[in-house]
Amino acid sequence: MLIRRRSDIPSSEITPESAYINRRKFLRKGSLALAGMTLGSAGILRAVMQDGKSWKPSNPSRYNTTEDLTSYQDATTYNNYYEYGMDKEDPEAMSGSFKPQPWSVAVEGEVKKPATYRLEDLLKGETLEDRIYRLRCVEAWSMVIPWLGFPLAHLIKRFEPTSKARFVEFTTILRPEEMPGQQRRYLPFPYVEGLRMDEAMHPLTILATGLYGRSLPNQNGAPLRLVVPWKYGFKSIKSIVKIRFVQEQPTSTWMIAAPGDYGFYSNVNPDVSHTRWSQAKERRIGDFLKRKTLPFNGYADEVASLYSGMDLDKNF
Ligand code: MTE
Predict the structure, then answer these.
(1) What gap in Å lies between CA 207 and CA 128, rounded to an integer?
(2) C-alpha of 97 from chain center
(3) To test ligand 1's pocket by mutation, which of 148, 238, 256 has the most ligand atoms within 8 angstroms of CB?
(4) The whole model's pTM is what?
(5) How many Å lie between the centroid of ligand 1 and the Cα of residue 189?
(6) Shortest-distance Cα residue to atom 10 of ligand 1
(7) CA atoms of 113 and 156, how far apart (whole Å)
(8) Which CATH code fits 11-307?
(9) Each residue of 100-113: pLDDT tens digit?
(10) Between 20 and 30 A from 58 (CA), which of 122, 209, 259, 279?
């Protein structure tokens, strides 16, 4: 997602990621050991549970991957959320005063039931499933996160889109007083993303309200975010306040910021490089060695048919 000059890039990104993460892990292990000394075994047990890798789903989805989970700590402290800053630690450090409650979502456009819905009403009747999905970032790192969520298709059906609705556009909240990155304007806020209607209706596309069985922390997009596991992570827009059904393909924030790098579809594609780096490999956060990136982030069997006949080099 980088549109910065080299001189603007913080040292956390210049440091090779493995070294950076390992340094943080080392520091964390140090503090764990200290916690053990001062808190005794109850403290150690709590600290180990917080790691989240041993977390088990209570309401598993049939789409779950069985790959090892990223630790809760990494999933909630190494984030992209430019509304709070450009460094990976900024979202956790700067999101403390954000208020995710009360929350409502405006539903607009080509739809029979446009309204501003309270979050409680949107969630009424929904069963939250634990969806263990990979998240692959365009910066060539990835995580495996147990999201807590439900299919976006359920809500779309309730809103009753008209036959003119061909795309869905999502907008993040604009609240510069609580989101310091929005005061800096390095992206055209509010953050906007979009999906084609069939992508939005696909059972893998979910709205998440939590992870590891808990509510979403602010830095992960509280109280409601999208997760589209076969696309680069930036499509998974956070803290959604507007869902608009439209005829024309929406223009996303990243398409405005860097049109040569970020297209509308943004399906994970190891064969199409970013203009400044390859997408062929990725580093799973917590791993030392890189692994090959899979087409559609490993979800090709489920979603490749959505794009049959399309030139995916052009429609990147
Ligand atoms: N949504 C908003 N509103 N603002 C953002 O900066 N970053 C995106 C996406 N959603 C972003 C966003 C990017 S680049 C990624 S990789 C994922 O969120 C990261 O999600 P995570 O921090 O929960 O891992």
Answers:
(1) 10
(2) 21
(3) 238
(4) 0.87
(5) 13
(6) 237
(7) 10
(8) 3.90.420.10
(9) 999 999 999 999 99
(10) 122
